Amino acid sequence: xxxxxxxxxxxxxxxxxxxxxxxxxxxxxxxxxxxxxxxxxxxxxxxxxxxxxxxxxxxxxxxxxxxxxxxxxxxxxxxxxxxxxxxxxxxxxxxxxxxxxxxxxxxxxxxxxxxxxxxxxxxxxxxxxxxxxxxxxxxxxxxxxxxxxxxxxxxxxxxxxxxxxxxxxxxxxxxxxxxxxxxxxxxxxxxxxxxxxxxxxxxxxxxxxxxxxxxxxxxxxxxxxxxxxxxxxxxxxxxxxxxxxxxxxxxxxxxxxxxxxxxxxxxxxxxxxxxxxxxxxxxxxxxxxxxxxxxxxxxxxxxxxxxxxxxx
Length: 312
Fold this sequence. Notes:
This protein is about 30% helix and about 15% strand. It contains 11 helices and 8 strands.
């Protein structure tokens, strides 16, 4: 791997850029969007997608508007958009159904080690990874922005490793409406799940629903089981005090079936994070995929304003 200085110099000499980073066993493809009118003191941003998605959700919306990545680059920040191992253009290993959160997080940390301290913006199942990463390598992460992020497993119920028992909890909000997955094959989520969980709001670009569905990819079964702490296998942190000196923001919309205010506010309180419940800001109707909903530009500006206020 290139050292940080050499990599950043090479990237800034050429545009657009893409490259591979990650670990030897779990390489990751990365899109780099250079800052427009780079501003001193503004940290680069790494945008990590959630389960069953790729970095494409940050590059453009399904109705073909610019995504958060070009918006943040236009605001003067280098933006790096990786695909998790085995997702998009990142090659899978032979045991993809058992790819776990630590392996994904370690690949992302390898990227951060190459580009230097950065803001880590995460979504959904990348949330537990972010909390773990910030504790493991605080020196590499200047701030964390969690978009409807999963909590550290410290806050989750220990669910039984039993498909029938987990199925009985599928509508239990306090358990996160869990999904059980047998770890002998990848999980393939269909249109019905997408419509109910990710495209369930009037703010979602419904006319582009089929294009959005084409972006959904197979997922490691272990990622789902860890996300819901099935069998107690979720990714935990050692001590939330290790994150409380770092700027952390959690943003949640009112129409996200797996992220009620109580859940994400509890995560924010546990981590000492700033919490934005969008209706408190007069912003209503957002669901889980807020980076591609019709007010995505407004939400990008909200996050950019918070980062500027924190001096990141």
